[in-house]
Design goal:
Oligomer: single chain
Helix content: 55-70%
Largest sheet: 2 strands, antiparallel
Shape: globular
């Protein structure tokens, strides 16, 4: 997150990410607990796909990656860069180089699948699941990218 915030020239978010890391690694017992979020510093994820979009890279064609789900060329490349620059991966090893890395990857996948359970139900209930997934992915990523490029619109509260 810190590296991508810096590359996106979001210095305020980079500082908040550093403060979150410091708080959670000390008061959160090495990051086991998210003390910073309870203190008013919620996580603001940033990925390399957003960074590429910030510097003008277009999304490219939509692809459905086996076991990883929907993506486009820009965000698929971004995932690859994020994987190789993951600091935890440097410490415990990657998915193919250590049991701890493979276990972390599997646990993250299970957690991700649990978080998107409602979305998966909506996809399976759609008349055209592929078109629904493609549209939902494109809309969500467009929103995330708009935030990273500074083109996000403030919508009125109702």
């Amino acid at each position: 997150n810190l590296l991508n915030n810096l590359l996106q020239l979001k210095l305020g978010r980079a500082v908040k990410t550093t403060v979150r890391f410091t708080i959670n690694s000390t008061l959160g017992i090495g990051g086991l607990f998210d003390v910073a979020a309870k203190g008013g510093l919620p996580p603001r994820p940033a990925d390399f796909g957003q960074t590429l979009a910030r510097w003008g890279a277009k999304p490219g064609p939509y692809v459905m990656l086996p076991f990883l789900g929907p993506s486009d060329v820009r965000d698929g490349f971004g995932r690859l860069v994020d994987t190789f620059t993951d600091p935890v991966g440097f410490v415990i090893g990657g998915i193919f180089t250590s049991k701890a890395g493979a276990g972390r990857f599997a646990a993250a996948g299970i957690n991700w699948r649990q978080q998107i359970d409602g979305t998966m139900s909506a996809i399976y209930g759609a008349s055209d699941p592929y078109a629904f997934a493609r549209s939902a992915y494109a809309q969500r990523r467009a929103s995330v990218v708009q935030d990273s490029t500074g083109k996000a619109q403030d919508l009125p509260d109702f």
